[in-house]
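[job 0417] fold request received: Phage glycoside hydrolase
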Amino acid sequence: MFKNITFPLNIAKNSSGGPQFATKINQTISGVEYRTSILQYPKIKYNISTGINSKEDIDAISAFFRLCMGQKYSFRFRDFVDFSAQNQKIAIGDGILDSFQIIKSYIIDDEYIERKITKPLSVIIYIDNKVCDKSLYDVDFTTGIIKFKVKPASGQVITADFVFDIEMRFDTDFLNIMLYTNTSYQLKDVNLIEVL
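[job 0417] inference complete; emitting C-alpha coordinates
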Protein backbone atom coordinates (compact mmCIF):
# COMPACT_ATOMS: atom_id res chain seq x y z
CA MET A 1 0.00 0.00 0.00
CA PHE A 2 1.32 3.41 -1.03
CA LYS A 3 0.84 6.86 0.47
CA ASN A 4 1.65 9.68 -1.95
CA ILE A 5 3.69 11.60 0.63
CA THR A 6 7.37 12.55 0.51
CA PHE A 7 9.95 11.55 3.09
CA PRO A 8 11.55 14.70 4.64
CA LEU A 9 14.02 15.94 2.05
CA ASN A 10 16.59 17.37 4.48
CA ILE A 11 16.87 13.99 6.23
CA ALA A 12 16.96 12.07 2.95
CA LYS A 13 19.80 14.27 1.70
CA ASN A 14 21.98 13.45 4.72
CA SER A 15 21.17 9.72 4.80
CA SER A 16 23.50 7.02 3.48
CA GLY A 17 22.69 4.22 1.09
CA GLY A 18 22.51 2.97 -2.47
CA PRO A 19 21.60 -0.03 -4.64
CA GLN A 20 21.76 -3.54 -3.18
CA PHE A 21 21.64 -6.81 -5.12
CA ALA A 22 21.07 -10.25 -3.62
CA THR A 23 23.54 -12.89 -4.79
CA LYS A 24 23.75 -16.53 -3.78
CA ILE A 25 27.30 -17.91 -3.91
CA ASN A 26 28.10 -21.63 -3.86
CA GLN A 27 31.70 -22.75 -3.69
CA THR A 28 32.98 -26.18 -4.64
CA ILE A 29 35.71 -27.97 -2.68
CA SER A 30 38.15 -26.90 -5.39
CA GLY A 31 37.32 -23.26 -4.74
CA VAL A 32 35.32 -22.61 -7.92
CA GLU A 33 32.40 -20.23 -7.32
CA TYR A 34 28.93 -20.42 -8.83
CA ARG A 35 26.98 -17.18 -8.43
CA THR A 36 23.23 -16.77 -8.86
CA SER A 37 21.33 -13.48 -8.74
CA ILE A 38 18.25 -13.74 -6.56
CA LEU A 39 17.05 -10.29 -7.67
CA GLN A 40 17.00 -9.24 -11.32
CA TYR A 41 17.18 -5.60 -10.29
CA PRO A 42 18.80 -4.04 -7.23
CA LYS A 43 16.75 -2.52 -4.44
CA ILE A 44 17.74 0.85 -3.06
CA LYS A 45 18.46 0.74 0.67
CA TYR A 46 19.08 3.77 2.90
CA ASN A 47 20.07 4.19 6.54
CA ILE A 48 18.26 7.33 7.65
CA SER A 49 19.95 7.46 11.06
CA THR A 50 22.84 9.45 9.57
CA GLY A 51 20.40 12.15 8.45
CA ILE A 52 19.17 12.99 11.95
CA ASN A 53 20.70 16.25 13.21
CA SER A 54 18.14 17.90 15.49
CA LYS A 55 15.03 17.59 17.65
CA GLU A 56 13.07 18.85 14.64
CA ASP A 57 14.38 15.91 12.60
CA ILE A 58 13.34 13.45 15.32
CA ASP A 59 9.86 15.01 15.46
CA ALA A 60 9.54 14.82 11.67
CA ILE A 61 10.65 11.16 11.55
CA SER A 62 8.39 10.21 14.44
CA ALA A 63 5.36 11.79 12.74
CA PHE A 64 6.22 10.24 9.37
CA PHE A 65 6.76 6.79 10.92
CA ARG A 66 3.36 6.98 12.64
CA LEU A 67 1.61 8.05 9.43
CA CYS A 68 3.15 5.11 7.59
CA MET A 69 2.37 2.72 10.45
CA GLY A 70 5.88 1.33 10.36
CA GLN A 71 6.30 -1.05 7.45
CA LYS A 72 2.67 -0.93 6.32
CA TYR A 73 2.68 2.02 3.91
CA SER A 74 5.31 2.89 1.34
CA PHE A 75 6.05 6.49 0.33
CA ARG A 76 8.15 8.74 -1.90
CA PHE A 77 11.87 9.06 -1.17
CA ARG A 78 14.40 11.29 -2.98
CA ASP A 79 17.74 9.62 -3.67
CA PHE A 80 19.89 12.72 -4.05
CA VAL A 81 22.64 10.66 -5.68
CA ASP A 82 20.38 9.53 -8.54
CA PHE A 83 17.07 11.31 -9.14
CA SER A 84 17.04 12.61 -12.72
CA ALA A 85 17.72 11.77 -16.35
CA GLN A 86 18.08 13.74 -19.57
CA ASN A 87 17.56 12.62 -23.15
CA GLN A 88 16.55 9.17 -21.90
CA LYS A 89 15.29 6.90 -24.66
CA ILE A 90 11.90 5.54 -23.62
CA ALA A 91 10.76 3.63 -26.72
CA ILE A 92 10.36 3.62 -30.48
CA GLY A 93 6.80 4.05 -31.71
CA ASP A 94 5.14 1.25 -33.64
CA GLY A 95 1.84 2.93 -34.53
CA ILE A 96 0.01 0.45 -32.25
CA LEU A 97 0.97 1.20 -28.64
CA ASP A 98 -0.11 4.43 -26.99
CA SER A 99 1.30 3.80 -23.49
CA PHE A 100 4.94 3.52 -22.40
CA GLN A 101 6.76 2.99 -19.11
CA ILE A 102 9.32 5.61 -18.08
CA ILE A 103 12.71 3.95 -17.70
CA LYS A 104 16.27 4.97 -16.94
CA SER A 105 19.20 3.19 -18.59
CA TYR A 106 22.63 2.67 -17.01
CA ILE A 107 25.18 2.11 -19.78
CA ILE A 108 28.83 1.01 -19.78
CA ASP A 109 30.32 0.43 -23.24
CA ASP A 110 27.89 -1.91 -25.04
CA GLU A 111 26.19 -3.22 -21.90
CA TYR A 112 23.26 -1.68 -20.10
CA ILE A 113 20.61 -2.29 -17.48
CA GLU A 114 17.21 -0.62 -17.43
CA ARG A 115 15.39 0.65 -14.37
CA LYS A 116 11.64 1.16 -14.23
CA ILE A 117 10.73 4.64 -12.97
CA THR A 118 7.36 4.52 -11.21
CA LYS A 119 7.33 7.75 -9.19
CA PRO A 120 8.26 10.62 -11.52
CA LEU A 121 7.95 14.22 -10.32
CA SER A 122 8.29 16.13 -13.56
CA VAL A 123 8.50 14.88 -17.14
CA ILE A 124 9.22 16.49 -20.50
CA ILE A 125 8.57 14.26 -23.53
CA TYR A 126 10.28 14.52 -26.92
CA ILE A 127 9.27 12.93 -30.20
CA ASP A 128 12.18 12.71 -32.65
CA ASN A 129 14.08 15.28 -30.53
CA LYS A 130 11.21 17.83 -30.62
CA VAL A 131 9.38 18.78 -27.43
CA CYS A 132 5.94 17.16 -27.37
CA ASP A 133 3.08 19.45 -26.35
CA LYS A 134 1.87 18.47 -22.88
CA SER A 135 -1.71 18.44 -24.13
CA LEU A 136 -0.85 15.42 -26.31
CA TYR A 137 -0.01 13.03 -23.46
CA ASP A 138 -0.75 12.25 -19.83
CA VAL A 139 1.70 11.03 -17.20
CA ASP A 140 0.59 8.86 -14.27
CA PHE A 141 2.86 10.12 -11.48
CA THR A 142 2.18 7.04 -9.33
CA THR A 143 3.07 4.42 -11.98
CA GLY A 144 5.40 6.22 -14.41
CA ILE A 145 3.19 5.39 -17.40
CA ILE A 146 3.06 7.85 -20.30
CA LYS A 147 -0.18 7.66 -22.32
CA PHE A 148 -0.32 9.45 -25.66
CA LYS A 149 -3.63 10.73 -27.00
CA VAL A 150 -2.38 9.99 -30.51
CA LYS A 151 -0.29 6.84 -30.96
CA PRO A 152 3.33 7.61 -31.93
CA ALA A 153 3.95 6.61 -35.52
CA SER A 154 6.15 3.67 -36.42
CA GLY A 155 9.82 4.59 -36.09
CA GLN A 156 9.29 7.74 -34.04
CA VAL A 157 11.80 7.94 -31.17
CA ILE A 158 10.36 8.82 -27.78
CA THR A 159 12.78 10.36 -25.27
CA ALA A 160 12.33 12.20 -21.98
CA ASP A 161 13.89 14.46 -19.39
CA PHE A 162 12.60 13.74 -15.90
CA VAL A 163 13.06 14.01 -12.16
CA PHE A 164 11.91 11.12 -10.00
CA ASP A 165 11.42 9.74 -6.51
CA ILE A 166 11.65 6.12 -5.35
CA GLU A 167 8.88 4.17 -3.64
CA MET A 168 10.29 3.01 -0.30
CA ARG A 169 9.12 1.73 3.08
CA PHE A 170 10.52 1.37 6.58
CA ASP A 171 12.11 -2.03 7.21
CA THR A 172 10.99 -2.03 10.84
CA ASP A 173 7.88 -1.55 12.95
CA PHE A 174 9.95 -0.17 15.85
CA LEU A 175 11.43 3.31 15.91
CA ASN A 176 14.29 3.20 18.43
CA ILE A 177 15.03 6.76 19.57
CA MET A 178 17.67 7.44 22.22
CA LEU A 179 17.77 10.67 24.25
CA TYR A 180 21.25 11.59 25.50
CA THR A 181 20.58 15.15 26.69
CA ASN A 182 17.74 17.61 26.30
CA THR A 183 19.16 18.56 22.92
CA SER A 184 20.97 15.39 21.83
CA TYR A 185 19.15 12.52 20.16
CA GLN A 186 20.15 9.41 18.29
CA LEU A 187 18.06 7.21 16.06
CA LYS A 188 19.37 3.65 16.19
CA ASP A 189 19.88 2.09 12.76
CA VAL A 190 16.64 2.54 10.84
CA ASN A 191 16.67 1.49 7.20
CA LEU A 192 14.39 2.21 4.28
CA ILE A 193 14.05 -0.37 1.49
CA GLU A 194 12.80 0.16 -2.05
CA VAL A 195 9.48 -1.32 -3.11
CA LEU A 196 9.75 -2.63 -6.67
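[job 0417] notes: The chain is about 10% helix and 50% strand. Residues 84-166 form one domain.
[job 0417] exit 0
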